[in-house]
């Protein structure tokens, strides 16, 4: 077993990750028929990271309902057809020796937008393929159309949607479930006082704002049993006065752990626009480390982690249990194989077909 921290396997419940380099969830806006069914693009996109040696390959934000998709080109996990298409992709990920994770998501007030690279920007109107978005309160995100406020009964329905999505995910073969509570999407909208002005049991105090997330965690845990790792992705701060912050994140992470979550994927921002984010290498690592120390939970760090030595130092120092990578691993899907070479680690999971590429001569 290698003694380089980044390549030390890690176990959560019944699942063992072969290393600590994990693929961050990344929307692809590449569903063809606007039916949420993943395509060959997703097979090759996610499959390339599995082939490249990642310890965990996480899907993009995958809608737990049609209105919960960010764009009409997002994947979903609310129909059996979607489940079956995911099963094929998960099969390939497993064949390559990686762990398959799915990010379960509801976009709330940030739903129904045009895909990122299209000519049109912002909210996709009803009548042009868009739909009415929903949220804890009828407070619009910057420049977007106003969402409809969910009734209390509709909030309870969201718990059911996440639970049903968890069931379909397990049936598709996924090993890890990640609940998306970051980046200004629905669950983050409930957590932050800037987007939640409800007067029922889902608004007001921190306990009330966290209630929906905690009900979802408990419901998913009851549905999937004891073996399956459940992660929660948080934004550790809104970077805004009177918003959600790292102390609230640590408190709710501990509650979520008690409700059945295992590991926290610590990101930041996305709830309000026009804020200054101090971008730089590993800029979110201190948030992950704080949540880990304060709540006594496992975490992964993410955000501008691009170098093998940097990634190894984050894990070796104990700041985080793993790193997630997005843009760098898109640039180089074989980053884990390359990082092993750079750090002098011999791996036994080079793809057989590529074994001659292990040596330079
Ligand atoms: C193309 C793209 C799509 C993304 N989609 C998602 C997503 O679906 N869910 C999510 O939580 N974060 C998403 N993110 C954020 C990434 O998961 C990650 O947190 C962010 O890119 C910072 O990591 P990096 O510096 O390694 O890219 C996306 C980022 C990119 C670049």
List the helices and strands and how they pair.
Blueprint: E1 10-12, E2 15-17, E3 21-23, H1 40-51, E4 56-63, H2 80-95, E5 99-105, E6 134-135, E7 148-149, H3 152-172, E8 176-181, H4 186-191, H5 206-224, E9 230-235, H6 246-259, E10 263-267, H7 285-295, E11 298-302, H8 308-316, E12 322-325, H9 327-331, H10 335-342
Parallel strand pairs: 3-4, 3-12, 4-5, 5-8, 6-7, 8-9, 9-10, 10-11, 11-12
Antiparallel strand pairs: 1-2
Explained architecture:
The protein is an alpha/beta fold and 361 residues long. The chain has helices spanning 40-51, 80-95, 152-172, 186-191, 206-224, 246-259, 285-295, 308-316, 327-331, 335-342, and strands at 10-12, 15-17, 21-23, 56-63, 99-105, 134-135, 148-149, 176-181, 230-235, 263-267, 298-302, 322-325. Strand 4 (56-63), helix 2 and strand 5 form a beta-alpha-beta unit. The two termini are 25 Å apart. The mean pLDDT is 97. Bound molecules: flavin mononucleotide. Flavin mononucleotide binds at residues 24-27, 60-61, 103, 180, 182-183, 233, 267, 302-305, 325-328.
């Amino acid at each position: 077993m290698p003694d380089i921290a980044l390549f030390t396997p890690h176990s959560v419940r019944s699942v063992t990750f072969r290393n600590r380099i994990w693929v961050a969830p990344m929307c692809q806006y590449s569903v063809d028929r606007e039916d949420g069914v993943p395509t060959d693009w997703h097979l090759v996109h996610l499959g390339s990271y599995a082939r490249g040696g990642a310890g965990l390959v996480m899907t993009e934000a995958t809608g737990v309902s049609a209105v919960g998709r960010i764009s009409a080109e997002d994947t979903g996990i609310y129909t059996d057809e979607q489940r079956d298409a995911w099963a094929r992709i998960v099969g390939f990920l497993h064949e390559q020796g990686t762990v398959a994770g799915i990010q379960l998501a509801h976009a709330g007030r940030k739903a129904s937008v045009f895909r990122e690279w299209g000519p049109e920007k912002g909210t996709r109107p009803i009548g042009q393929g868009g739909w009415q978005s929903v949220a804890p309160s009828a407070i619009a995100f910057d420049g977007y159309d106003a969402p409809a406020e969910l009734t209390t009964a509709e909030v309870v329905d969201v718990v059911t949607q996440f639970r049903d999505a968890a069931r379909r995910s397990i049936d598709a073969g996924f090993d890890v479930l990640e609940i998306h509570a970051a980046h200004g999407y629905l669950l983050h909208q409930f957590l932050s006082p800037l987007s939640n002005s409800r007067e029922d049991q889902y608004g007001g105090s921190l306990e009330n704002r966290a209630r929906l997330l905690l009900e979802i965690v408990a419901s998913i845990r009851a549905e999937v049993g004891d073996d399956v790792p459940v992660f929660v992705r948080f934004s550790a701060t809104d970077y805004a006065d009177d918003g959600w912050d790292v102390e609230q994140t640590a408190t709710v992470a501990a509650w979520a752990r008690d409700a059945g979550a295992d590991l926290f994927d610590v990101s930041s921002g996305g709830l309000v626009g026009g804020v200054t984010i101090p971008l730089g290498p590993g800029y979110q690592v201190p948030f992950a480390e704080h949540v880990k120390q304060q709540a006594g939970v496992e975490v992964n760090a993410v955000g501008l982690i691009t170098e093998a030595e940097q990634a190894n130092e984050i894990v070796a120092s104990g700041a985080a249990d793993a790193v997630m990578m997005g843009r760098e691993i898109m640039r180089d899907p074989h980053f884990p194989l390359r990082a092993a070479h750079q750090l002098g680690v011999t791996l036994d999971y080079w793809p057989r077909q590529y074994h001659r590429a292990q040596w330079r001569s």
